[in-house]
Amino acid sequence: xxxxxxxxxxxxxxxxxxxxxxxxxxxxxxxxxxxxxxxxxxxxxxxxxxxxxxxxxxxxxxxxxxxxxxxxxxxxxxxxxxxxxxxxxxxxxxxxxxxxxxxxxxxxxxxxxxxxxxxxxxxxxxxxxxxxxxxxxxxxxxxxxxxxxxxxxxxxxxxxxxxxxxxxxxxxxxxxxxxxxxxxxxxxxxxxxxxxxxxxxxxxxxxxxxxxxxxxxxxxxxxxxxxxxxxxxxxxxxxxxxxxxxxxxxxxxxxxxxxxxxxxxxxxxxxxxxxxxxxxxxxxxxxxxxxxxxxxxxxxxxxxxxxxxxxxxxxxxxxxxxxxxxxxxxxxxxxxxxxxxxxxxxxxxxxxxxxxxxxxxxxxxxxxxxxxxxxxxxxxxxxxxxxxxxxxxxxxxxxxxxxxxxxxxxxxxxxxxxxxxxxxxxxxxxxxxxxxxxxxxxxxxxxxxxxxxxxxxxxxxxxxxxxxxxxx
Amino acid sequence: xxxxxxxxxxxxxxxxxxxxxxxxxxxxxxxxxxxxxxxxxxxxxxxxxxxxxxxxxxxxxxxxxxxxxxxxxxxxxxxxxxxxxxxxxxxxxxxxxxxxxxxxxxxxxxxxxxxxxxxxxxxxxxxxxxxxxxxxxxxxxxxxxxxxxxxxxxxxxxxxxxxxxxxxxxxxxxxxxxxxxxxxxxxxxxxxxxxxxxxxxxxxxxxxxxxxxxxxxxxxxxxxxxxxxxxxxxxxxxxxxxxxxxxxxxxxxxxxxxxxxxxxxxxxxxxxxxxxxxxxxxxxxxxxxxxxxxxxxxxxxxxxxxxxxxxxxxxxxxxxxxxxxxxxxxxxxxxxxxxxxxxxxxxxxxxxxxxxxxxxxxxxxxxxxxxxxxxxxxxxxxxxxxxxxxxxxxxxxxxxxxxxxxxxxxxxxxxxxxxxxxxxxxxxxxxxxxxxxxxxxxxxxxxxxxxxxxxxxxxxxxxxxxxxxxxxxxxxxxxxxxxxxx
Lengths: 472, 486
Ligand SMILES: [Zn+2]
Prior knowledge:
The structure holds two protein chains of two kinds.
Chain A: E1 4-14, H1 53-65, E2 69-70, E3 73-74, E4 77-80, E5 90-93, E6 100-106, E7 112-122, E8 126-130, E9 133-137, E10 144-150, H2 157-173, E11 186-195, E12 206-211, H3 214-233, E13 242-246, E14 251-254, E15 267-268, E16 275-276, H4 279-288, H5 293-302, H6 308-315, H7 318-329, H8 334-345, H9 352-357, H10 364-375, H11 381-394, H12 404-407, H13 412-425, H14 427-434, H15 441-452, H16 458-469
Parallel strand pairs in A: 12-13
Antiparallel strand pairs in A: 1-10, 1-11, 2-6, 3-16, 4-5, 4-15, 6-7, 7-10, 8-9, 11-12, 13-14
Helix pairs in contact in A: 2-3, 5-6, 6-8, 7-8, 7-10, 10-11, 13-15, 13-16, 15-16
Chain B: H1 5-13, H2 19-37, E1 40-43, H3 45-59, E2 71-75, H4 102-109, E3 113-118, H5 152-159, E4 165-169, H6 176-182, E5 185-188, E6 209-213, H7 216-226, E7 257-261, H8 270-285, E8 289-293, H9 298-316, H10 335-346, H11 349-362, H12 368-391, E9 394-398, H13 414-419, H14 425-430, E10 434-441, E11 447-453, H15 459-473
Helix pairs in contact in B: 2-3, 5-6, 9-11, 9-12
């Protein structure tokens, strides 16, 4: 039997503010347990929360980047439940007046996945089980989070992955979170149900909690859809429950559940005043947003004429895109700049993170100088690559490696005589080319490059050689 | 004779008495009387004497603050760095915070000498201070009677001259009612006028710290010292009162419009009603204009108060789980079992009753009918206060419908006790300021308090009218002998 997947994703993202949401403690990762704490974030009697305005600002950035409406009036609520990692026995969150509502993320197919809401809240501490004891570390308690809730618009495992990936990309781009799934600064809960195609009613849904990688989202959706389909095919019914995805077995199983029947007794937190957000403030934040990756991609392809694959690789990382655009501003050509970034600079960067950080030792201007030499055909691509390597290693400018006298290049007469030399010295290669083994011409190229230290214009040399071989 | 702050300040500066001598006199009185009165639950004599010594040094300078070297007391729900702060609950029995409440921090900076922490109803929940895990404080004016609550120990300490002044907290009348029962002055400031940072929360949207003292002027001096916005309390307001309120008390009441709403006098003990009416007449003779008003929302204020206060309390008290601080059950089988046992052993009946009530009114299915409705009526009560203060400058009412209860009086149960808060709770719901000043005694010699209620941040007018009355009425209470002989 064929079913349609109905899936929504709730994403928790840790905001990269310097301090916690309700106190001045640092949000820095790590640290000895319970050293990034104070009376407020450990829920000491008599302490009171002060809402960090940066958190509100970051959440608005997220809202605007996801095409949301920003509510100008909002407030914080208390979500009451008892758990040892929650020092006040309530989490300060937002219930019926989230900061942002009604946005969307557009997938490559053009399909839009609705964003129901974005709200701000505080993270809890961490339980550490060791030697038969349970310890609590409150360093993470009070770290600001946003929860982004999507509409159940996702209808395949691939879409689920793409949604999460795009969300991650956007959040990184606007600089509000590093969204490291394996470190927990981005965590996804997937809601999923099945229904027969065309059925207007939703089936019973399950929730898969705390998925910590993009590929696991895809796999978890597939596994859970299959599990539900098997049950439905066998005439069974789906039980509404919380599940966990086990990456080792690629399967989904119910969690021991303490939360299912909880009544959180939400009510407005009397310690935090209702807050109003100025329209002007919203516009100020909107104006400060960078161009988003998909807008860049579109522009690189349509306006700059880059091939989509290259454009995608560059636009994916904000720092790379900024470097690229800086190079263009320095007068470099689109094609050469893009090719050298993707072909040479990226070859030094093995992980997503390195590309994300894009810690290169040269500036866009220094890079542009090099690209311009290539553009003006003063050096060939091979020299450009080699020089770039040296520049990346040393952080030095192009004039350290290429002297003005080098740039004089090889005159047409010199080149012609060099080609003649190469032709005379390699009779076998000449014969091979004439017999259809075209690759044999490389032997002569090698001869010329070796003689000129790589400075010869290989395209001109090729034209000359082919004329001599009589094979042009 | 009970000393007043300005006189003591003068004597300290003239070297007639040193702060150490003054402190020792209070310590002596406490050692003598506190075993009976139980006004203090934690004594901090060592730190008091150290503070007094420092105060004596500071008093050598010309610019020593008025409160420098003056011995005082704090309610046990106000956090004191390194000193016990237990809310008179078993669950916090050994708790010593590592931070000061802002109000205390301000007084400490002025050279205040803290004698100890005063008795109170457990977590400030009660009207008699009898829910304290240390046993009830006794009313110094008649030890067969309660002090009122929840700031009973703070009122008793000031009444018995075991402190020159004290701080209490008022969520539904907890400063004013014990002030009334013990015959002292108690000011509940506007919500937000004094920082709540370090005040252990009961009902967060209602709680407010304020002074108890032996005169309106003393209360004004202390209020001047503790008021002001605080970056650690978002609900605090840095209101500009213009100048020191204590220095602007000497005004008459000519033309002051006094509102009297009959609803506040319904079901009030006739002796109390008569004394308040006498007081109003006195003010009228001196030029005040009496406006008769209606305040129909009064009747509904009591359930609104109990719903909101208990809802907030049920959430505020969730943190006492035995994990980070306070009492922890000695044996348990699991973390859940530990939390349940800890709370069961740690909280008294009244606290449990209010946690359950609060949990109930916030539960899904009941939220709209109780909590949400209470919040809507709260708005209505605010509007009624706004309307009233269009027509008058202050509202005068009894502080409580009765004088002090005999000890262990239970009436017909908790609800009757809750009813005794009827005159004070509307003030907290609206967040306006109010003072209780003594205005006479009943036939048994128990003090009666008059409540003067003002507009938000209208403390100046409230204190002026109270001060004028106090000065004009003369002696309204019998003499109380005892306490520190100074
Ligand atoms: Zn903190």
